[in-house]
Write a structure and sequence with these properties.
- It contains 11 helices and 6 strands.
- It is elongated and about 60 Å long.
- It starts with 15 loop residues before the first helix and ends in a 5-residue tail after the last helix.
- The strands form 2 sheets. It has a 4-stranded antiparallel β-sheet, covered by helices on one side. A two-stranded antiparallel sheet has the order 5-6.
- A hairpin with a 6-residue loop joins strand 5 and strand 6.
- It folds into 2 domains: 130 residues, no CATH class; 96 residues, no CATH class.
């Protein structure tokens, strides 16, 4: 049982979130969902006790509500941050597992909110850095350091091409990325690729193959795995 008197939201209030949850449970109220989002996820990375207290109720709404799926995913994507709510998060373990099942089933239907739900599923699986990084591969840009020479390398994956890039003075130097074949993928990359292939998400599947493939550093010509370098720099240290 949630003690809402102890569950402040991102605006340091304790009474409004339960009221809003009751409202969206009764009817699909767009303004209530909008305010609930502001109170449970502030800007890009701040969540609060109310965020995790609300999560089980959002999960119950998730099979029929895109807003609940999206908001639940945003909360979980920030679960590795310094929120000070570890006990509340641990209490949500059952709801998080249920959320994963709901999301996986929903993705199989190839819904309009596929990317939002795929990112939410990554957060359920504690792949927080990918949950926050994936943008759909229309023109995704990530920055990594070359593990050999240390130069900053821009990785571009999208409709304008798939390449590594550095600037040497005013000169742009590019090298094509080398996507991983499906049989070469392992671990998280294999799991992500299999789900997107299963669901007919060709753009995502192709982007993941490049993300977990190899890049040539345009500066020193050494070759490295894109995902390994991004993960080493961005994966949060779990407490």
């Amino acid at each position: 049982m949630v003690d809402w008197a102890e569950a402040r939201d991102c605006w340091f209030e304790v009474d409004r979130v339960p009221e809003l949850l009751e409202l969206v449970e009764r009817q699909d109220d767009a303004e209530a969902w909008k305010e609930l989002g502001w109170r449970l996820v502030l800007e890009h990375d701040l969540v609060s006790p109310a965020s995790f207290a609300a999560l089980p109720r959002l999960v119950r709404l998730a099979p029929r509500s895109a807003e609940a799926r999206g908001l639940g995913g945003k909360i979980l994507a920030r679960a590795a941050g310094p929120h000070g709510c570890d006990d509340l998060l641990a209490d949500c373990a059952g709801a998080i597992a249920e959320f994963g099942e709901v999301l996986d089933q929903h993705l199989r239907s190839r819904p309009a909110d596929y990317l939002v739900c795929f990112r939410a599923l990554l957060a359920v699986e504690e792949e927080y850095h990918w949950a926050n990084a994936l943008e759909g591969f229309t023109d995704d840009i990530n920055h990594v350091g070359c593990p050999h020479c240390g130069v900053g390398v821009t990785i571009v994956i999208g409709g304008f091409g798939c390449y590594s890039q550095v600037w040497n003075g005013g000169e742009e130097i590019r090298r094509d990325l080398r996507p991983a074949a499906a049989e070469e993928l392992t671990g998280t990359g294999r799991w992500m690729h299999q789900i997107t292939v299963r669901d007919g998400q060709d753009v995502l599947a192709n982007g993941i193959a490049h993300l977990f493939g190899r890049a040539e550093c345009p500066g020193c010509a050494s070759v490295f795995t894109v995902a390994d370098e991004y993960t080493s720099a961005n994966r949060p240290v779990m407490r």
